[in-house]
Amino acid sequence: MQLSKLVSNLPPYHFAGVQKKLNERKAAGVDVISLSTGDPDLPAPAQVVERLCSAMQDPENHRYPEYRGMRALHEAIAAWFERRFGVQLTPERDILPLIGSKEGLAYAAMAVLNAGDVALIPDPYYPVYITGSTNVGAEPYMLPLLEQDNYLPDLESIPPHILKKARLLWLNYPNNPTAGYADRAFFEHVVEFARRHNIVIVHDMAYAEVYFDDFRPMSILEVEGANEVAVELHSLSKTYNMAGFRIGMLVGNHELVDAIGRLKSNIDTGIFRPIQYAAIEALNLPASWIEQRNVIYRRRRDLLLEGCNAIGMRAGISRAGLYIWAAIPQGFTSREFTDWLFEQTGVLVAPGSNFGPRGEGYVRIAMTSPDERIEAALERMKAVVAK
Ligand SMILES: Cc1ncc(COP(=O)(O)O)c(C=O)c1O
């Protein structure tokens, strides 16, 4: 069959292949420990599951949902946003519920970019920034995220001829995969930069609510004037351990929110209402639910940090997000190391190069397994990785 250029050029989604690899080794009797994906192993809150089940009982909820989400969900999102970030959003104008934030990334690219435009993409990156941009014919311009710059891009290094064609800047803090984070000074600079060059910022904040110690990630919308140039994506996947529910939201600049709503309503028909009710229940949970859940992740983070650094896999402290970004031993590419480690130990981590050329030399290790599995993985790694 003759397929479109768009799908012919589209690479397979990397993490779709990981599952196959895991299943093959499991079928061969290997006790696999997967620390490769950011898929929370902890359960969604009990109240959320109960609300989902009760909403399922009402036949009214079996009908087509609202294209742009229920008013009650908009109100719950606005109230959560104000409590968490001190930013007021207008329901239905500044908010668009999504079937997970991933689809919002692809839609944002479609809504902003034309063929021949430049998309500014931090490297390493979440893969959809690239495919979303190239699917609509835009050219990626990579912005290295380097350890010595605290994984923040150097916007002032972008040459003028690139800036002239640049229409969209992707950002993601807390960052996947580097565990980098952004402070107010950075966001203020980015907003000023975007206004100066007429560039749209899409800030992907999927890890907003996984944070440690006294650190609290901020929203770019807290910066004055940000809502003129920026939208932000949030997700209940990592925030409330609801990855399988598929629910997230786009917030911010209302023109872009509206445009994406128009695009989306021509492609899907909204979010199953019981899932919307479940999301409202989650968003209304007290902040203490998040704090207690984050204590579990913090313990895992500390185990991984200590274990990796002890075997010479240097890793900086993750202040937020679900990952440790660790340097690999000399003599391997990150893919070779990952394959070798899996072969030797049954421990699967993600090669840094999956996230772009600047990820070479690192692996990403997810905190999504219980302490005892992390301890077992570290024991196995210690046995094969020379210091
Ligand atoms: C940086 C980043 N953005 C977006 C997503 C998508 O999340 P979801 O579609 O589950 O909301 C992920 C998922 O891993 C992610 O790591």
UniProtKB/TrEMBL annotation:
InterPro entries reported for this sequence: Aminotransferase_I/II_large, LL-DAP_aminotransferase, NHTrfase_class1_PyrdxlP-BS, PyrdxlP-dep_Trfase, PyrdxlP-dep_Trfase_major, PyrdxlP-dep_Trfase_small
Source superkingdom: Bacteria
Any one Gene Ontology molecular-function term assigned to this protein's record: pyridoxal phosphate binding
Keywords (A to Z) from UniProt: Aminotransferase, Transferase
The protein's required cofactors: pyridoxal 5'-phosphate
EC class: transferase
Pfam annotation, one family: Aminotran_1_2
Any coiled-coil regions, as ranges: none
Keyword Transferase found: yes
The Aminotransferase class I/classII large domain, residue ranges: 31-380
EC number: 2.6.1.-
The keyword Magnesium belongs to this UniProt entry's keyword annotation: no
Family designation: Belongs to the class-I pyridoxal-phosphate-dependent aminotransferase family.
Protein name, UniProt field: Aminotransferase
Protein source organism: Ktedonosporobacter rubrisoli
